[in-house]
Structures are given as structure tokens and as C-alpha cells.
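Posting for a labmate who doesn't have an account.
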Amino acid sequence: MLLDNKKNGKVGDTLRDTLQVGSNLANISGLFSIDGFEALKKELNRVEQVRLLF
């Protein structure tokens, strides 16, 4: 799934809608920031594993 925060959907909205307790998240992005984590902290703390590739 390709999200661009414009016409192809917003990453934060999609993560809020799909992350559940025990989920695994793999994300490829050169733009993921600590501010992005802060905005999604509640949702990201539910997941079992997070893999980020910058």
C-alpha cells in the first residue's frame, strides 16, 4: 500500500484505522519522524513489533 499524505491517503489516518493489539508494522519511509511517533503513540504502543527502514 502506498500512502503519500495527499491524494493516495494519509499514513496517520490509515494506521489509526488498522493497527490493533498484537499487530506487526513494517514501514519504509525517509520521512518518519519523532513527531510522527508522538502523533501515533497510542496506536504504535499497541503493536507487537515495529520495523522501520529509512
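Reply:
Got it, the C-alpha cells are right above this. The mean pLDDT is 87.
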